[in-house]
């Protein structure tokens, strides 16, 4: 055939079949493409008409995939579209269609059906997720229980291609979106070079710890971390899911961080644990226990990255969400975490107003029953030896430091059966050792549980309930010397290196606390002289008042501790009598006032840390008969001479 002059749709070449320009005549009946009968196996031909450009494109793609060819679009506009062979675009297979005259249909005007490349393309980029969705939509509807691996095999057999992708991992976009919607989230991704250097880098590993999980972990979770790995069921996206979990205060599993890695070996575990160590903010001063099974590379990685933590083994760990593509997998885990935390919040809102979580109370009751089988032998005021049924069932308990040689009290934060038996022997209530009202870093910011050496407690900033604003706070990066009376893990070092002292225009350090009436309270005050000006006895001397009652006179931290920068704490037990049977709370003053009789070098007082414990009544009850809906806190600093009368009895003062 020959082209008419001026017909832009025709090319003069013997290799092509070309439709002459007068083919647009309405009197000629051209063949039409039927997607219902020819959609799966289209036959392309000159003069073939398609209802739209998209119908033409889908037919050409399907034809190319069926022939094992990879095509590209060299021209694509509103009037004309051309496809060529991707390997030989200049002289190989080509097809062109253009819009028909006064119609939206497209007609094949030029077609060269010969492919000079003889190889079948097993790696065919024409096979995209949208192509697979169109091609296998009916098959998916008929097999709703298909697993990803089964569906992959089916598609591979039908298309004779073995390196197609269901979805592309748009890594950086996903990471950016996670950081945008979840500020302070830790997210790391490792990419490796592609074997074909002209192609972009390949995804290898992915690590994430959501900010909300960080906040939950730092609020007071256990000092034991479980790590484990499981196989992913979609091998093209990496074969392992690495996870880290802890237990929350109600003994529920709380996932914190997870990672998708190419395999489970020393390198991948080292990479995961390195990021986990950084997010946990742990160093050699923090006591943590890691639990795992004996997986490949994990033991050696723990020894290399976290050599200072305890390591224990278990038979099995928990996590199963493995049969999804990479983005779907990560989103499913994120949704599971979000849903799980909300379910826990909803459950906790329905709990009875108590100081112990329901599951912890159940554990406590079971341990109380088991504690009756032990015979306690007191060694001193705080230490006891518990004797069981056999010579191997002997345990040592330290009530002051909340330690037991079985380590369950240390790990779970709730007394073990041996500690309960020792408490009974000391005539202490079990619940009273658990209820904390206030735990403050008086002169500094919040101290997360990860920085509390050994005890894993949260120390709040001590800037609430303060009377007035004329206090000085300071932080000194100094070395604290511990002695036999004060254990290293009893209090975080940062509590002793921060302090609150009296400003020049003030006369004392004052706080007001709203506390329940008719209960015993233990006030524990932490002291450490860290300033260069105070290194000797009688340089800073002060009195301590609790509820307008004298708790201590002529207090001298250097005299108590015996040296400069040596910590010490003092215990004071008080009883809140209550002025009115219908009033459940009253404001209690804590005041540190310089002692003028000793003529100390500095008219000043100091406090580093504070804990207030609520002790149960003789019936073992912590509930308030008439609870108040609102707590009244101090608004202004009243005159020291007009402080309200408190109905408080100071019972005893303990020196430690």
Write the layout of secondary structure elements.
Elements: E1 17-18, H1 35-38, E2 49-50, H2 53-66, E3 71-76, E4 80-85, E5 94-99, E6 106-112, H3 129-135, H4 137-142, H5 148-159, H6 171-181, E7 186-192, E8 202-209, H7 211-218, E9 224-231, E10 240-247, E11 253-261, H8 266-280, E12 289-292, H9 298-305, E13 310-313, H10 326-349, H11 358-371, E14 375-378, E15 383-387, E16 394-398, E17 403-404, H12 408-412, H13 417-425, E18 436-441, E19 460-461, E20 471-475, H14 493-496, E21 498-502, E22 509-516, E23 520-527, E24 542-546, E25 549-555, H15 557-561, E26 568-576, E27 585-594, E28 606-607, E29 609-615, E30 648-655
Parallel strand pairs: 9-12, 12-13, 18-19
Antiparallel strand pairs: 1-6, 2-6, 3-4, 4-5, 5-6, 7-8, 8-11, 9-10, 10-11, 14-15, 15-16, 16-17, 18-29, 20-21, 21-28, 22-27, 23-26, 23-29, 24-25, 24-27, 26-30
Helix pairs in contact: 8-9, 11-13
Essential attributes:
30 strands; alpha+beta; 656 residues; 4 domains; single chain; SWIM-type domain-containing protein; seven-stranded mixed β-sheet; zinc; elongated; Nucleotidyltransferase, domain 5; 15 helices; MULE_transposase_dom; Znf_PMZ; six-stranded antiparallel β-sheet
Describe the structure.
With 656 residues, the chain is an alpha+beta fold. The chain has four domains: 17-126, no CATH class; 171-347, Nucleotidyltransferase, domain 5 (2-Layer Sandwich), CATH 3.30.420; 358-427, no CATH class; 435-655, Jelly Rolls (Sandwich). It is built from 15 helices and 30 strands. The chain has a seven-stranded mixed beta sheet, with helices on both faces. Strands 1, 2, 3, 4, 5 and 6 form a six-stranded antiparallel beta sheet that branches. α8 (266-280) crosses α9 (298-305) and α11 crosses α13 (417-425). Residues 1-15, 21-26, 163-170, 315-321, 428-433 and 629-642 have low confidence and may be disordered. It is a single-pass membrane protein. It comes from Capsicum annuum (Capsicum pepper). Residues 395-427 form the SWIM-type domain.
């Amino acid at each position: 055939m020959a082209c008419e002059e001026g017909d832009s749709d025709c090319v003069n070449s013997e290799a092509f079949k070309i439709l002459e320009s007068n083919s647009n005549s309405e009197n000629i009946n051209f063949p039409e493409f039927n997607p219902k009968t020819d959609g799966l196996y289209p036959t392309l031909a000159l003069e073939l008409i398609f209802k739209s450009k998209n119908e033409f494109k889908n037919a050409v793609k399907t034809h190319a995939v069926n022939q094992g060819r990879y095509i590209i679009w060299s021209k694509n506009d509103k009037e004309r579209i051309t496809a060529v062979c991707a390997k030989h675009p200049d002289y190989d297979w080509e097809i062109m269609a253009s819009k028909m005259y006064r119609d939206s249909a497209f007609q094949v005007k030029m077609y060269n059906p010969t492919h000079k490349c003889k190889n079948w393309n097993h790696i065919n980029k024409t096979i995209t997720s949208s192509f697979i969705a169109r091609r296998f939509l009916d098959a998916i509807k008929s097999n709703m229980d298909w697993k990803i691996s089964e569906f992959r095999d089916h598609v591979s057999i039908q298309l004779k291609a073995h390196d197609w992708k269901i979805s592309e991992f748009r890594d950086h976009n996903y990471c950016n979106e996670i950081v945008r919607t979840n500020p302070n989230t830790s997210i790391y991704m490792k990419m490796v070079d592609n074997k074909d250097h002209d192609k972009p880098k390949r995804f290898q590993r992915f690590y994430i710890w959501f900010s909300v999980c960080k906040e939950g972990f730092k609020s007071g979770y256990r000092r034991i971390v479980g790590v484990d790995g499981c196989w992913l069921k979609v091998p093209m996206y990496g074969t392992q899911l690495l996870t880290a979990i802890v237990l929350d205060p109600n003994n529920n599993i709380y996932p914190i961080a997870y990672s998708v890695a190419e395999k489970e070996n020393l390198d991948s575990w080292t990479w995961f644990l390195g990021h986990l160590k950084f997010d946990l903010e742990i160093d050699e001063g923090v006591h943590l226990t890691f639990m795992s099974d004996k997986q490949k590379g994990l033991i050696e990685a723990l020894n290399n990255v976290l050599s200072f933590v305890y390591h224990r083994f278990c038979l099995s760990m928990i996590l199963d969400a493995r049969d999804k593509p990479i983005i779907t997998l990560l989103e499913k885990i994120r949704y599971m975490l979000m849903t799980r935390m909300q379910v826990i919040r909803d459950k906790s809102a329905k709990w009875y107003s108590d100081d112990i979580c329901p599951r912890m109370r159940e554990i406590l009751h079971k341990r109380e029953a088991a504690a009756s089988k032990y015979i306690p032998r007191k060694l001193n005021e705080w230490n006891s030896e518990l004797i069981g049924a056999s010579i191997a069932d002997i345990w040592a308990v330290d009530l002051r430091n909340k330690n037991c040689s079985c380590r369950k009290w240390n790990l779970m934060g709730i007394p073990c059966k041996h500690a309960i038996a020792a408490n009974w022997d000391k005539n202490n209530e079990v619940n009273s050792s658990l209820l904390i009202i206030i735990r403050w870093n008086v002169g500094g910011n919040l101290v997360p549980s990860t920085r509390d050496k050994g005890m894993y407690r949260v120390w709040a900033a001590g800037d609430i309930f303060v009377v007035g604003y004329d206090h000085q706070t300071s932080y000194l990066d100094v070395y604290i010397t511990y002695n036999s009376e004060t254990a290293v893990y009893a209090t975080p070092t940062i509590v002793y290196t921060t302090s609150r002292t009296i400003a020049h225009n003030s006369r004392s350090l004052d706080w007001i606390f709203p506390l329940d009436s008719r209960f015993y309270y233990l006030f524990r005050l932490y002291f450490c002289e860290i300033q260069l000006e105070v290194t000797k006895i009688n340089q800073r001397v002060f009195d301590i008042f609790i509820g307008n009652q004298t708790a201590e006179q002529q207090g001298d931290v250097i005299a108590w501790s015996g040296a400069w920068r040596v910590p010490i704490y003092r215990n004071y037990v008080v009883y809140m009598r209550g002025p009115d049977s219908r009033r459940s709370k009253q404001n209690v003053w804590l005041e540190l006032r310089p002692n003028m009789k000793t003529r100390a070098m500095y008219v000043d007082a100091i406090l580093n840390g504070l804990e207030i414990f609520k002790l149960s009544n003789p019936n073992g009850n912590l509930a308030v008969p008439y609870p108040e809906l609102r707590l009244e806190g101090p608004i202004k600093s009243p005159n020291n001479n007009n402080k309200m009368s408190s109905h408080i009895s100071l019972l005893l003062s303990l020196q430690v």
